[in-house]
Amino acid sequence: MTDKHTDEGQGRYPEPKYDDADSSLAGVRASRRQFIKGVIASGAAVTSAGALISCSPGGGDVSVGGVERMVRLMVNGVERTVDVLPNETLAMTLRYKLNLTGTKLGCDRGECGACTVLVDGVSSYSCSMLTHSVRSQEIMTIEGLESADGTLHPVQQALIDELGPQCGFCTPGQVMSAVALLRVNPNPTRDQVRMALSGNLCRCGAYDNYTNAVMRAAQGAA
Ligand code: FES
Ligand code: FES
To answer: Which of 49, 152, 155, 204 places its Cα 20 to 30 Å from the Cα of 175?
Structure first.
């Protein structure tokens, strides 16, 4: 189980900056917004210093390190070839072999939702499924939401606008669950949003912030 306090993705969030000793409230809010923007976009920005094995898109540079078979995975629209152990979970493959550390590991046993990704569009706990079981499916992680031109997904942008996350550890999972919801229900009620995010625990208790953000994103999409 990964120690969330030493998670490499956490350590790379930009520090909040305050303009000067007598910063106005507006300045503080701007700094916090900047911080949250870093959290939301972290999936695309981080790299894993602790990665055990790395693979390039297309599978042309696969390091030898496992003892089992090579599998092809479709992750964020790119085919990746990776050496996967028989008992390896998708979360481990994503984080430690594909360097997609936006997907977090909290409980590592299907309770917290930090590891949520989309598998064929359905929000799924990647810590609780074997990588071999998703070989023929489309996997999307938080890193796959941002457009090629850098535009954030409406849910990501809404979380920034609502100053949604606190520590940010649960945020990628929350975002992926919200994206899954809005794909099938672009105009949800607050209760439907709460239900969709009910599998994502937030130790900071930012549930209302997340709900507000998803409602904002839905209104923008409607
Ligand atoms: S890490 Fe907690 S549900 Fe997967
Ligand atoms: S924002 Fe800290 S755990 Fe959710």
So the answer is: 49
